[in-house]
Design brief:
Blueprint (H helix, E strand, L loop, with lengths): L1 H56 L5 H32 L3 H47 L1
Helix pairs in contact: 1-2, 2-3
Amino acid sequence: MLFVAEAFSGLAVGSTHIVESAMELTLPLLKALGVLIIIWGVLCAAIRLVGMEIKLLQGRPHKRDAAVIREHLGYYLILGLEFLIAVDIIETLLHPDWKELGVLAGLVVLRTLMSFSLHWELKGIEKDQLSEEQAAGASNASDNS
């Protein structure tokens, strides 16, 4: 019976080591993915911004273009930050100490505040767009009367 208990004990330690090794290997990939998401969002926003400026130079300004660009950029920033927070949490689980925990707490608070701020701003953009669409709808309805 003792032999079986020792075998399971060794199995648990071995599987824990495998899980830790797998997490150590995936952390750089997750971190890179978070950064790539942010970079992709910035590149897409820059391309759309150039398109918006070209329209503006051609005399076809469109107020909603800027709001759409900000909304998409905010989405990518929030998503990338979520990946980076996940990486920080996993790193702290792998190497728990007070210094890491303090750094993680600070990063999570800052990134959460940034995410909340971006989310709040995006909600404001959506609200403004809805108000504009309702006003345009009311204007079109009165024109058709």
